[in-house]
């Protein structure tokens, strides 16, 4: 079978392998000891070694290597156990690749070309296997049947895939099957008559990691809040771990995300997939979602873009004078091409720039060509496109649709948005010079009027700028200009040198694709400014507070013009996206954008940064930044192991580096140096910040290792960053004439400075192999830890009822996963932006089950009625759900409050909820008082002092009835109402009609058929809360009953499952 190319050092491998076939580029080798008839000692030794090794460590007897002439390193590209299979692979290489490789001049190009072809063959094999499996669903049916029978989960739970593996208990492995479903992972083993099975909800997973131990070199460790479990001996460890991370990430982003992470709708819908769809379809959904996340991050596309196609192909690259193999990705509004080696060559083409997509005649030299023509009179040629016809048809259909919408909306001069970003419809305001300054959009970049640098007497800066401009112009002539220019390693070097100020704004708009958004939404910004300015909100108050803190040393923000422009941009964005509004550090970023771009361009750059390039960074909890800090810690351990060894706890370093990510180094570097970092950020995205952060730590590794505490480490990094200069700045020491060395008489020691261009170049050279795919994979895994840790912290700070919280959360999950009827409503109304105590909610049926478990006094046959009334009382917003905050407050009253508060709660169950705030002025009629007494009677059943309590409540009932009768007679004596109460005024009748339908006053659950319950008029028999409370206080037995201390923890311990039991054990079996 074909392999992902792996490096092999031939010098150490020759003794173990025998070459069967060879040519200039490939070797077919056989393992010694396999197929030898002579029985030489070396062959026997190798054969015996392979026989006794564990199955995971055994080596296949045949392999094919790619060798580059003159190199000691080769790449294993195929392996197998049968010589016939290897001969077929060999023949394919000779017939299809050998002749093509002879025309390459560069050795690296040979290796890159072959590795790309092999990866394409692997992808085709995977697709072929999946298609074959779907045609024969018997294996799926068998796995699904075992899954349902063994674990008793609801039928709505969808199985995704299964793996044969071992689960370790201590040093003992148990071979079995691991089942991965949408909401759970489950393991089953039956060995030597002993059955082992368990279920772990993804929402309970706090960490997923691959580890090495003394027993196994590669294991998957799954950690929950209760315990950890280790799995090994997967046939496909990489695939299993990837799907586990992805499923856990989906579950947590759907259920625990309280920081504004925008949930992917298609992922949410995976839990609603019908049972007829096989789990191979679900696997494809997961793979498609992982690929979509990668493509959005690679090209920094809007988060609402949907991936349509991903096709292997080759694109003609004029600068290289050859076809570059890679992949074409198409989304709703974009075409993106990326070479096989990420970062080597890429192109992004907005569909709005495309004129036509045409098929050309296929030849042996140009198989299946497609020509994409764009508005700048350029054309891109793609070849070797599989399924070319359907791809071209799909692109043409979307192109025509987009062109029709453009023409329609332009003719109507409407501002309807085409993207899925949160655009609002705004009035069509045009720029009016008569508007006051705070409403007037600035047409020029602020840097054109306000220079920050000091005068340059030697004119060095001007010369350097001219040289950079000349290099960029040469680059534009060769690689193109605008959004669809070829982005190669050469442009990376130009960016590292620093973009010239005259081109900085244009290239920022190009690299970020903000130029496309600006072109698609004319007058959108001016309309937002007109709507938002003058409005007052929390966001505008914070903006006004921070306006004068934004680059206060720069002359552009020491006057009314710059401050007004900054106010308009920030206020307009807060108005556009109220979910984010305004967050700290946005003012610094917007200030820099305004310096180098026009005001409207700065607004769209801010939109791109907040919503595409740094998603989830700018909100109250900065979840995205926290995830990247966790990723950064792992990269430190991987790339800087000596530093990680000296500083085992890297959290202080990530605390320091948080501002690097939030402000793109703008808050820690000198201004001109920081702007160079922003150049790299717009070209590479967050990858540039990761690389630069690692380079900064490596440059200071020795000083950090010798630091005594966190404060000293902070001073080391702060001092280093302060002296990072730009050689274009005339005020920097790097641009000054060399001075006398330190130690000479009359000259102070010269402080060492680091050039920002050297630091950026160093970061590319040492850490440039970091890819977007690696970062996205790490983010997926670390998001699990960050979200779970964030919930734990919030739970500890917000509530003290941890066990109650977990029990309530379990009911919430059950409702979201498998509830019927209200489930759809629960999913639709679930708001991840709420605090955790308000985010988890239960419906009426779930509350009744919790009521029975936790209430200190059950009421016998009357329990269901009391639970129903309690839920209605707590459901303040009448949405048929109660939050954990409301639930905890109710429990606190029952277990911890004084007697009068408990009686007050019981009293409120017998009046309309809206009257609880005026309970001291609200009386209940005789019928409700009798119901109140029934509730008290039912609470005493089973109590050791039952008889005494019954006598006490009988006494209280008689006393209150007498009080009510006296009050009734006194009111009747001054009223014209007849003694039978048959006459009622219009106001009272309206009140009765208004309260008749309220759930509290429904008698259906009590089995009665009487009239609705309501507050009576002044002529009827009523008693007040104060009268009932005073009467109860006369009976010491009742006082003792309500004041008796009760332990909620003990009650919870009786109903909570053991730590090893998961949510599934609490479910009713089907």
TrEMBL record:
Chain segments carrying region Disordered: 726-750, 970-1013
Rab-GAP TBC domain boundaries: 498-685
Q: Name one Pfam family in it.
A: RabGAP-TBC
* Keyword Glycoprotein set for record: no
GO terms, biological process: glomerular filtration
Domain (EF-hand) spans: 862-897
Record's keyword terms, sorted? Cytoplasm, GTPase activation, Repeat
What SUPFAM superfamilies does UniProt report for this protein, alphabetically? EF-hand (SSF47473), Ypt/Rab-GAP domain of gyp1p (SSF47923)
- Where in the cell does this protein reside? Cytoplasm, Cytosol
The protein, known as: TBC1 domain family member 8B
Q: Which organism is it from?
A: Esox lucius
């Amino acid at each position: 079978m074909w392999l992902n190319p792996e490096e092999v050092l031939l010098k150490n491998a020759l003794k173990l392998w025998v070459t069967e076939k060879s040519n200039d580029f490939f070797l077919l080798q056989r393992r010694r000891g396999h197929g030898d008839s002579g029985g030489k000692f070396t062959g026997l030794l190798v054969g015996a070694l392979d026989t006794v090794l564990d199955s995971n460590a055994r080596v296949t007897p045949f392999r094919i290597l790619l060798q580059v002439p003159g190199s000691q390193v080769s790449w294993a590209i195929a392996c197998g156990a049968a010589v016939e299979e290897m001969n077929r692979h060999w023949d394919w290489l000779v017939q299809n690749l050998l002749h093509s490789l002879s025309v390459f001049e560069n050795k690296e190009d040979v290796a890159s070309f072959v590795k790309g072809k092999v990866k394409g063959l692997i992808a085709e094999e995977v697709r072929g296997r999946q298609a074959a499996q779907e045609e024969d669903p018997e294996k799926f049916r068998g796995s699904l049947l075992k899954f349902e029978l063994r674990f008793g989960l609801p039928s709505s739970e969808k199985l995704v895939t299964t793996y044969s593996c071992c689960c370790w208990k201590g040093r003992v492995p148990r071979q079995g099957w691991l089942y991965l479903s949408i909401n759970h992972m489950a393991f089953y083993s039956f060995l030597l008559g002993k059955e082992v099975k368990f279920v772990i909800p993804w929402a309970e997973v706090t960490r997923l990691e691959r580890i090495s131990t003394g027993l196994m070199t590669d294991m998957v460790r799954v950690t929950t809040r209760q315990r950890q479990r280790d799995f090994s001996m997967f046939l496909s460890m990489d695939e299993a771990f990837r799907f586990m991370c992805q499923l856990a990430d989906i579950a947590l982003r759907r259920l625990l995300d309280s920081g504004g992470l925008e949930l992917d709708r298609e992922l949410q819908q995976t839990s609603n997939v019908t049972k007829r769809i096989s789990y191979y379809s679900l696997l494809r959904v997961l793979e498609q979602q992982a690929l979509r996340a990668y493509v959005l991050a690679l090209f920094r596309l809007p988060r609402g873009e949907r991936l349509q196609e991903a096709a292997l192909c080759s694109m003609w690259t004029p600068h290289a004078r050859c076809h570059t193999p890679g992949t074409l990705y198409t989304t709703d509004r974009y075409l993106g091409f990326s070479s096989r080696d990420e970062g080597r060559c890429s192109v992004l083409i907005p569909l709005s720039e495309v004129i036509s997509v045409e098929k050309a005649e296929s030849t042996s030299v140009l198989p299946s060509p497609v020509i994409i023509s764009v508005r700048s009179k350029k054309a891109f040629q793609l070849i070797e496109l599989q399924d070319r016809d359907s791809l071209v048809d799909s692109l043409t259909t979307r192109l025509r649709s987009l062109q029709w919408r453009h023409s329609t909306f332009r003719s109507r001069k409407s501002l309807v948005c085409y993207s899925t970003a949160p655009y609002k419809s705004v009035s069509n305001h045009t720029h009016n010079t008569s508007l006051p300054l705070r409403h007037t959009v600035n047409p020029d970049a602020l840097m054109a009027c306000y220079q920050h640098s000091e005068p340059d007497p030697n004119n060095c800066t001007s010369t350097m700028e001219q040289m950079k401009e000349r290099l960029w112009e040469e680059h534009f002539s060769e690689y193109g200009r605008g959004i669809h220019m070829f982005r190669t390693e050469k442009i990376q070097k130009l960016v590292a040198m620093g973009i010239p100020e005259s081109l900085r704004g244009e290239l920022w708009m190009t690299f970020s694709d903000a130029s496309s958004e600006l072109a698609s939404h004319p007058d959108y910004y001016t309309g937002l400014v007109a709507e938002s300015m003058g409005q007052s909100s929390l966001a505008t108050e914070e903006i006004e507070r921070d306006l004068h803190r934004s680059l206060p040393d720069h002359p552009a923000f020491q006057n009314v013009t710059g401050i007004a422009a900054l106010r308009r941009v920030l206020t307009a964005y807060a108005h556009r996206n109220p979910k984010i509004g305004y967050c700290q550090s946005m003012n610094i970023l917007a200030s820099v954008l305004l310096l180098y771009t026009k005001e409207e361009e700065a607004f769209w750059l801010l939109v791109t940064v907040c919503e595409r390039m740094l998603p989830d960074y700018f909100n109250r909890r900065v979840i995205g930044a926290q995830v990247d800090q966790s990723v950064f810690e792992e990269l430190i351990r991987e790339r800087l192991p000596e530093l990680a060894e000296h500083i085992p706890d890297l959290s202080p370093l990530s605390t320091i580096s948080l501002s690097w990510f939030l402000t793109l180094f703008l808050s820690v570097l000198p201004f001109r140096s920081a702007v160079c970092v922003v150049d790299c950020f717009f070209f590479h995205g967050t990858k540039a910040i990761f690389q630069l952060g690692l380079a900064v730590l490596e440059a200071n590794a020795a000083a950090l290792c010798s630091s005594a505490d966190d404060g000293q480490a902070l001073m080391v990094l702060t001092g280093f960053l302060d002296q990072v200069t730009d050689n274009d700045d005339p005020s920097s020491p790097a641009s000054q004439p060399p001075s006398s060395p330190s130690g000479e008489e009359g000259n102070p020691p010269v402080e060492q400075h680091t050039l920002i261009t050297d630091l950026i170049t160093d970061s590319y050279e040492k850490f440039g192999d970091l890819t977007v795919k690696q970062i996205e994979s790490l983010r997926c895994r670390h998001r699990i830890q960050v979200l779970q840790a964030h919930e734990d912290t919030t739970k500890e700070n917000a509530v003290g009822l941890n066990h109650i919280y977990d029990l309530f959360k379990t009911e919430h999950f059950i409702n979201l996963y498998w509830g019927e009827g209200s489930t759809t409503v629960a999913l639709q109304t679930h708001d991840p932006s709420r605090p955790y105590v308000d985010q988890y909610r239960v419906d009426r049926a779930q509350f009744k089950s919790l009521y029975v478990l936790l209430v200190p006094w059950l009421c016998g046959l009357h329990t269901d009625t009391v639970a129903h009334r309690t839920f209605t009382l707590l459901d303040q917003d009448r949405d048929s759900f109660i939050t954990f905050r409301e639930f905890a407050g109710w429990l606190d009253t029952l277990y911890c409050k004084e007697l009068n508060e408990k009686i007050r709660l019981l009293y409120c169950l017998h009046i309309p909820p809206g009257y609880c705030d005026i309970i001291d002025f609200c009386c209940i009629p005789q019928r409700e008082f009798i119901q109140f007494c029934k509730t008290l009677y039912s609470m005493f059943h089973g109590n050791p002092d039952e008889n005494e309590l019954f006598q006490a409540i009988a006494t209280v009932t008689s006393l209150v009835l007498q009080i009510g009768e006296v009050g009734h007679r006194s009111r009747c004596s001054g009223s014209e109402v007849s003694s039978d109460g048959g006459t009622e005024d219009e106001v009272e009748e309206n009140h009765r009609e208004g309260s008749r339908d309220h759930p509290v006053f429904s008698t259906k659950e009590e089995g009665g058929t009487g009239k609705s319950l309501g507050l009576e008029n002044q002529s009827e028999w009523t008693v007040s809360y104060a009268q009932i409370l005073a009467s109860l206080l006369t009976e010491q037995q009742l006082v003792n009953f309500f004041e008796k201390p009760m332990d909620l923890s003990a009650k919870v311990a009786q109903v909570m499952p053991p730590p090893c039991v998961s949510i599934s054990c609490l479910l009713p079996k089907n």
